[in-house]
Amino acid sequence: MLSHHCLTPLTPTELAEKRQACYALVRDYPWLIPVTVAAGAFPAVVAAHGFWKTRQLKKQLQIEREKTKQLALRSAHPGKRSHLRP
Question: Using an 8 Å Cβ cutoff, are 1 and 8 in contact?
Answer without folding.
Answer: no
